[in-house]
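Morning!

As promised:
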Amino acid sequence: MDVRTAFKEGIARLRVADVPSFTLAAELLLLHVLGRNRAWLYARPEEIVSDAERQCFFDLITRRAAGEPTQYLTGKQEFWGLEFEVTPDVLIPRPETEHVIEVALDRLALREIRAGRPQKPDGAGLHVADVGTGSGCIAVALAKELPAATFIATDISPAALEIARRNAAKHSVAGRIDFREANLLVPVGAQHAAPLPGTLATSAPPPVPPSPRTRHPSRIFDLIASNPPYIGRCESPSLPREVRDHEPHAALFGGEEGYELYAGLITQSAQHLKPGGILVLELGHDSLPAVQPLLETPDWAGIAVTNDLVGIPRVIAAEKI
Ligand SMILES: C[S@@+](CC[C@H](N)C(=O)[O-])C[C@H]1O[C@@H](n2cnc3c(N)ncnc32)[C@H](O)[C@@H]1O
């Protein structure tokens, strides 16, 4: 069988199975099996596919037709121009989450301008948290953009943290991101509401007498970014099978309504951000009315909402007073 025939047959099987973007899915799976790029595929349609490659390709087509997402079959997804390893232990990074990166970098740049410093900060001295890191896409993308910043990336899922660590290593930022198992910002197993330690050092620093600068030792972050689970369990029946049956439920569902995790996330962020620190949160398609009032308190200023490319309020940002 040649490449053209395998490709056409793959497309036909996915179309019959009602797979969205069936041509793209067949193309990605074929390129994955052949270890080739798009240009090769369209330039060499007459090349012969080996029996092993054909078997492997049609096995993947069968799995895709049954609902497994293409990215879990190929093991990768691009985000912010970087390739991330993905497995069923992590949410597949979405394009709309790139708005979190854009807003975070814009707000940091604005802060620098206000302080009379260069407009493109390298992150020197900045300590950043990514809450619910999943594949690590937010922490890694920000670490690439802020090459002097240090990071803590938390997740409640140890399996997700393993993937995130691998992605940080793949992009050479592992030395600056401390991955921690935590419930939002509270380390798993820690005393209720114990603050997340702020340094990357393993040994505790010697005690310092309180001063105006150290009076709030848990206020350590300049930026907290998060794409928390925000889908309501009540919406589960309407989700595409690729999402509902294959992506981790801990990454999808924020509670019965979906927005339940935001209150804790905002309260903890207020405790852990430095004055002037920035909070950037991704929003579910209908989360804004539930989330914005949580920020309209004396703790926060400079609330701004950013729409995604289809006009849905997708990111909310605020500055800690
Ligand atoms: C929507 S996914 C986001 C993953 C990744 N940041 C992204 O944008 O693709 C949410 C992540 O939060 C994690 N998570 C869920 N509940 C959590 C909690 N209470 N504390 C920390 N992480 C949590 C999930 O395991 C999942 O990896």
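DSSP finds twelve helices and twelve strands in the chain.

Hope this helps with the figure draft.
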